[in-house]
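Model the whole thing, not chain by chain.
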Amino acid sequence: MEHKNIKGKLLLYIDNELSQPEMMEVKTHIDVCADCREHLTVISGLWRLEKVQKQEAPRYIWTRLAAEIKEYEHNPVLFDIFYSRKKFAYIFQPAVMVILVFISVLTGYFGGNFLSREINGNQVISNNEQVARVFYLDRLETEHISNAMTIASNENGEEILP
Amino acid sequence: MQDISDDILKQASKGDIQAFEEIYKAFSGFVYSSAFRISGNSEDAQEITQDVFFTAYKSLKEFRAESKLSTWLYRIAVNKALNFQRKKKLNQWLSLDFLLENKPDEIPHSPAYNPLKELEKSELERIVQKAINTLPDNQRVAIILSRYEALPYEEIAKIMKCSISSVESYLFRAKQNLSKKLIDY
Ligand SMILES: [Zn+2]
């Protein structure tokens, strides 16, 4: 446990930023503990590694930037509108689309059923049944209609019109 | 790191692209380098750098000479880089990428096979960089500006809009956390 405690202070020890008693505590431990001493050697080598070479910005960033500025100067207002739209591109992300589709389906299902009941007043006709009527009445034979209506009635567990 | 003459600044703020290029030449190294440290990869750093200078170009007229141009630019750079990273994390979630993702920010954890002393220098740097990337934003920015960019505390305080003692405290806590993160190596 003490080793862990000592190792957890080593960067501050290297930079001489611990309180006097803590500096002493670490030093005393390091003097007698080979394991922590070795860790100190490695960590201080790591910490004092010569500064990583400065990163140079690739030249083509300027080329792209200059083109962007030119486009902006051409029509700042339009550019800003377009640019701020780019920021909303995230709404086309899959997770958002999945949520939107889910909400649409739920709204359609519950909203649709609710409306059909309202419109038909006391007569309980399900949404599915109405859809079946609209789709099939003109185009199919009577038996198809009755099939479709049976399916609709079974789905809703309700009695339908003869 | 050079600062820029008033003349160039004046011309650039009037929209002179050649004058602005001088500003870009003087500071793009630092901006790119800190964006690289904060974002952790060169593609993001390029995008952030372009965004920083585009914002600077548009708002140079509002720049007041009460702070140094470099401080102003570094501040934009740090904010953009942090925002970029947050947005990227959000986008990864929104695009469901996290389902495939392998937590790239985690420090490789195999001390039994890779004790620090046996690792290559570049590998060591990578381990420190990854450990830095797991620090809270304030500590991370402070340590990057101090360790990699070698900026004085006063400058870091101006960039981070906080007191010098806060910078000292961020750095202290950063080193404490890093020591703990590196215990197993
Ligand atoms: Zn020990």
